[in-house]
Design brief:
Length: 245
Amino acid sequence: MKIIEANDYQDMSKIAADYIMKKVSTSPNIKLGLATGGTPTGIYSNLVADHRENGTTYRGVTSFNLDEYVGLSGTDPNSYRYYMDHHLFDHIDIQKENTFVPRGDMDNIQDGCAQYENLIQKRNGIDLQILGIGENGHIGFNEPGTSFESKTHVVQLTHSTREANARYFNSLEEVPTEAVTMGIGSIMKSREILLLISGEQKREALKKLFTGDVDESFPASVLKNHPYVTIIADKAAIGDLKVHS
Ligand code: GLP
């Protein structure tokens, strides 16, 4: 794992956005894996600003999002489909039909999971996966204990994850209890991974990632087994951890 140190959240977002823009410019048909949550919003606003100012085009890009809440339709402002449209897709020239987010409102959610997994593989997989990390080390919505072999599946969200995400809802009770997420096995198939870590509240997670064992009790630790991972972390997340040996 290679790590790039950023001064702060703005700096991390800019470095990550530049990284993605460069990839999109050199590989116009790139397949991106995209993440939601608080961390990537700064990246997306940088991509939107660059698209407006410099015209970087996304016409040939395909995207697959990591996860979605069960029970929310894409028009619900708390759904991740809505988030992606609002923060990115509606402001760049990506073809909406080439943007995929797992559906949380299907009648047969298990079939939906299998279809999503097949779709990614049918399109020959993800070239560059953007990831955030939960305070408990979750990636996507793969909570501690999830099998490293897992494919797209339905998960029960932990209380801590629901609490962390309650800030987007009117109350904790409104936060769905389940989600669909790409599995850890699905994520690991991506050819390249860009992991973003920002803020003091993620310091423990970053430390565990660097100093802990590869173990299913800390999902992000699996990334140590991936050949091509770049972490962009800001000073608040790094603290006094020695990230370069
Ligand atoms: C959320 C998302 C993850 C995200 C993580 C961290 O629950 N499902 O994909 O990476 O938790 O979120 P944030 O960036 O808001 O800290």
